[in-house]
Amino acid sequence: MSIVLEVDGISKSFDGQAGAKAVLSDVSFHVKEGEFVSLIGPSGSGKTTLFHLIGGLAKPTGGDIRIHGRSTVGERGNIAYMPQQASLMPWLTVAANIELALDIAGIDRQDARSMAREWLERVGLKDGIAESYPNLLSGGMQQRVSFLRALLSPQPLMCLDEPFGALDALTRMQMQSWLLSLWEENRRTVLLVTHSIEEALLLSDRILVLSTAPAAVIREITVPFSRPRKDALWSNPDFNELKREIYDLLKPVR
Ligand SMILES: Nc1ncnc2c1ncn2[C@@H]1O[C@H](COP(=O)(O)OP(=O)(O)OP(=O)(O)O)[C@@H](O)[C@H]1O
Fold first, then answer.
1. What range does the domain containing 18 cover?
2. How far is the CA of 61 from the centre of ligand 1 (A)?
3. Are 123 and 175 spatial neighbours (Cβ–Cβ below 8 Å)?
4. Looking at the domain assignment, is residue 183 inside a domain?
5. Interacting residues of 230 by C-beta distance below 8 A, sequence separation 6+
6. pTM above the 0.90 mark?
């Protein structure tokens, strides 16, 4: 499998009143083609900052970011990004929201139109949802549309930033199962930021554990469960063992 993303010795500091504040310190990792990798770390450890750097919205203080071997520091348009809040355009229908993203990414308008409609049906968003406006959909439905928009976008890497963080616990579990089966069919290259250890274990091939700020990768865990996975994994003793191990890594040092 070829390497899609290389984060190579990245550091990032912000200037503040009390001088420079280091947020990331020598962070290095990679994501291979078709891999699902999760980043998990304490609150404030710089996960969103890292996504901003990968997406080209900010520049690192040091280090390099490469996509398919080419340095993309400060360059936008290389990732399909899914934020915590769906951020759909309220004045466009669901289908038009997806079409717009594909259009911006350079896909022919006619192709974007048929892709959006076909995929909405395929992922169970039927019964006129394509022609509905986003504010008529539940939070979970909006996130399905947001995920689909990222999934269909042609960029080589999907970055999912706490995509289910704003959902209630039950909807979140349903969304995880939905995303799991959809991802296992499509195998796009994914980097996920999450606060949920269970979510990371259920979905990922590998988990990168970040330390508190200034953050570095303190552990890389290869998730040993075979695919296709089912949410019944939650009752597997090995699942709980790994959950405990990651929880201990994230515990604040007293
Ligand atoms: N533009 C900025 N200027 C100054 N400090 C910033 C800026 N952006 C982020 N920070 C600081 O960097 C640190 C890391 O923030 P970031 O949002 O990346 O963490 P996070 O791991 O995503 O947090 P959470 O898990 O709570 O969402 C925080 O202390 C934050 O205040």
1. 1-78+157-169+188-254
2. 15
3. no
4. no
5. none
6. yes
pLDDT tens figures, 189-239: 999 999 999 999 999 999 999 998 899 999 999 999 999 998 788 889 999
- On the question of pLDDT at 148 being above 80, the answer is yes
CATH code: domain of residue 208: 3.40.50.300
- The pair of three-digit structure tokens given for residue 60, joined into one six-digit string: 């690192």
User: Closest ligand 1 atom to the C-alpha of 46?
Assistant: 18
Q: Which residue's CA is minimally distant from atom 7 of ligand 1?
A: 14
> Any idea what the Cα angle at residue 140 is, between residues 205 and 108, rounded to 5°?
75
Please state the domain count of the chain. Answer: 2
Among candidate residues 227, 228, 223, 226, the one with its CA nearest the CA of residue 242? 223
Calculate mean pLDDT across residues 59-85: 94
Residue 119 to residue 203: CA distance in whole angstroms: 21
Residue 212 inside a domain? The answer is yes
Q: Is residue 218 part of a domain?
A: yes
Q: Whose CA is nearest to atom 18 of ligand 1?
A: 46
Our mutation pick for probing the ligand 1 site, out of 11, 12, 23, 39, counting the most ligand atoms within 8 A of Cβ, is 23
* Cβ atoms 184, 228 nearer than 8 A: yes
Beta carbons within 10 angstroms of residue 241's beta carbon = 9
**Apex CA 84: angle with CA 80 and CA 86, to 5°?**
70
Alpha carbon distances (Å) from 93 to 82, 98, 145? 18, 9, 11
> For the residues of 178-246, what is the DSSP string, one character each?
HHHHHHHHH---EEEE-S-HHHHHHH-SEEEEE-SSSB-EEEEEE----SS--GGGGG-HHHHHHHHHH
Contact present, 204 and 223 (Cβ < 8 Å): yes
